[in-house]
Amino acid sequence: MEIIQAKAEVGTVFSQAEARGEGETVRVEIPQTGVSLGEVERYLRQRLGRQTIVSGALRRQGDRLLLTVRASGSPGRTLEGTEAEMPALLQSAAEAVLQDTQPLRMASYLTSEERMEEAEALVRPLLGRGTDKERAQAYLAMSVLLLNSERAREALSAARRAVQLNPSDGASLAFVGASEWILGQHEAALASIASARAAFRRPGGGDGLSQIARATGEPAMLSYARLLTRDHAASVEASEEAAAISARGGDDSGMQSYLWAAAQQSALGRDLPSARRLAADLPRTDATLLVRNFLEMETAAALEDWPRALRASLAIPNNGSPDAAAMDARYLVRNGRVPEAAELAAAMPNDCYPCLIVRGELAARSGDPAAADRWFAEAVRQGPSLPSAHSAWGEVRLARGDLPGAIRMFREAQSRGPRWADPLKFEGDALARQGDHRAALRRYEAAIDRAPRWGAAHLAAGRSLAALRRPREATEAYRRALRLDLSAADRAEASRLASVQSARP
């Protein structure tokens, strides 16, 4: 029998399997953040803590090969196959060693490969074994694979159990927040993210994490928190900080993910030039496809291109996420496809903040203002710290001609999201319809202060300036709007108004 040493080959494949298990992006998106759960999962990755030595031997027995691999602290395993099957044997050997030495890493790898049943079978025995910290890690790994199996509520329960076992761990708290966000429980997510952010700032809050994971934890949590309260500029800044930390640490994947997030957050903040600039140099790969679809959706929505926004939204798998389903329903409503939106809404849970908002918008479009008000009131009750429901309620009231009611809702939104431009601009629209162009102009200027590149806000300011008989300033506002992104209808109007104003003596 011929004996062939296989230590180098098995060691290489072991390293590749381990790296894939640790670094592969898990294919679930946190809606409206542009960040995959693989990025949140980054915080729960544990270092080896000890050197793992892998050795092995390969024997030929007739036309068969027998590959034996051993790792320090684990029994050897022998696998059998033909010479043509050698690559598969090496891969299986690497997986076997990883499973024996680091089962949670192996579970992460299996999850990235969408081998969910194998991952769950590996993790479940670990839930009741070891110290509280070890069990917390197992529950966190279970939460990841449950989310990727579209079992979001079970995933949240597992993440909360991890927090009970290790209350000071920023990773566990971050994953609770991510799970709540995916379920549409945005008020709870805001509190969990704040707790995670505080944990990452404390000594020991990121025990066992890599240096990069600890360093990016706080700005990443800040980015998510600011996004929920619609402070888009601060959200972009925090994502860019996390990207810079990742770049300095040599984590190119993390850097790219955070920059994609910053691009999408820029689009949400009505800054489409910055969104395009950030996205221009980033790779277009299968791994970034979902994030690119989010960016496409938000860019189209900012330009009121509802068919394009709907196509992008429907291209994003919701993975059982009520939050993502609410986005699909919202753009169906905006496209006038009310029956399809109603079918989606009927299956939405009643504890999902964006789901309640879209039900209100659906009821308004269906001609039932009383039902719309009930849905919005419930959304406000479930998200008392959040501005989105009040702003959407204001838009619905504005559309129905209830100007005082719309203004009241927009001001409530401003009190909860003082750096959000949208409710300021929309209040300006309501005031302009009341004929109070002086007050409307103040709101438009405040919106432009928060979103300087929002073309529609400059156009609206120009209309109020013209109504206040300030023609030169109005013309300047129209021209500024034309240099920025506008919907097709707004661009046509801005061109006409600029021409008319310039022709006047």
From TrEMBL:
Q: Which UniProt keywords apply?
A: TPR repeat
Q: Where are the TPR repeats?
A: 136-169
Q: Coiled-coil segments, which residues?
A: none
Q: Which domain of life is it from?
A: Bacteria
Q: Give the SMART domains listed for this entry.
A: TPR
Annotated protein name in UniProt: Tetratricopeptide repeat protein
